[in-house]
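Annex B. Sample input.
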Amino acid sequence: MNDTGPLVYVVDDDVSARQGIAGLLRSAGLTAKTFASAEEFLAAPPRTPSCLVLDVSLPGVSGLDLQQELAKSDVQIPIIFLTGHGDIPMTVRAVKAGAANFLTKPFHDEDLLNAIRQCMKLAALERRARTLEDSLKSARSELHDRYGFEQMTGGSTVFRDALARAARVAPTETTVLITGESGTGKELVARAVHHASSRADGPFVAVNCAALPDTLLESELFGHERGAFTGAERQKPGRFELAAHGTLFLDEIGELSAGVQVKLLRVLQEREFQRVGGTATLKADVRVIAATNRDLTAEVAAGRFRNDLFYRLAVFNVHLPPLRERGDDVLLLADSFIRTLAAKMGKRDVTLSRDAVEVLRRHPWPGNIRELQNAIERGLITCDETLVTAAHLAIPLSPEPIVPPDGSEPVRSKTGSVALHDLERNAIVEALQRAHGNKSRAAELLGLTRFQLYSRLKRYNVEVATDLSA
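Annex B, continued. Sample output.
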């Protein structure tokens, strides 16, 4: 007897029918196990089979009753009912209730085998679906562990207050504007809002509005039709389409041109848009989270940002404090970066020296968390032993601590009050000097992108004497 093929159960009170079906199944390479009644089947719950061949008219508990009992117990077994002509209406009801198929006695052997093969395919698909669902649950849990608000490092009051505000708005559909300097973690907070929302199962799609010229940005946001412009060889969905049922994160929103601002305003107002070169109107089923390091109220006053778009975006504002206002969070973050980066480099038990801690406390961190991470990574690369010193970090030392507890005191130096923009300007100048005028290297030292560095050079009117990498 073959006991290695896919398992099929047969429940039939007719011994000859039961044995005949079992013989047929075994001759087809299947494993058959038979039961004379539903009670016998229920009394000896075996491993889940690929299929159950079930007679409708059983003494005691009928086949239909057994199907319902299995459904109540959440036992997933594809069922093929065997029925006489008088039982067809009852069997049709069973099929509507979830049975896979039914055959009328007498049936052709090949019809039964084909029905069983279909059941086995169905069972395989259901197993695959359950596996995919388990994988999805695991992925969701992993994303929550990675992007949950509770995973964010920092204990300062200003930072925890900002996270509490973001967590409060997360479950809603409200448009959120996240403000803060570059490198303060705006995208990380946006992802946390997404994963704490009802749209968590949908996509999180991010667009850096400063990274693309206007012509490409419009196509990137709204998509384009084939032939809409030179090089548009095929239809392309935009980020609003790709983010359907999820969240669209618009980073550096303050860099949008006036033309793109108008089109974005229409999407936010009407919740619909058209692809570039298209005429069909598409629905925008997305939640928008925007972020900027600019003062948008000042941009509105200067006429560079639309007042109506600002109010559409700033329905709920979350402001992230700069690192210099977060007190000892700089040390908590440094410790976190040391643990994660050292593990990737194969280094163990790495600590900071006293002078390294002092540098971390005193530095103004114009590049914020990104700059800190770069400094820690640089220190881990250059240190030979398990101690990272100030020299390994290679960051400038400010004369006094720039970080007040929770930002409660003004930033000062030994010579008196120092404006924040002066601290940032000095840090940029020093980085350029250390990089010998190489802007890419200076941006890396500061934890900024080249575009962000160019913006600050223009803002602070910094002249670069030597530029090895313009």
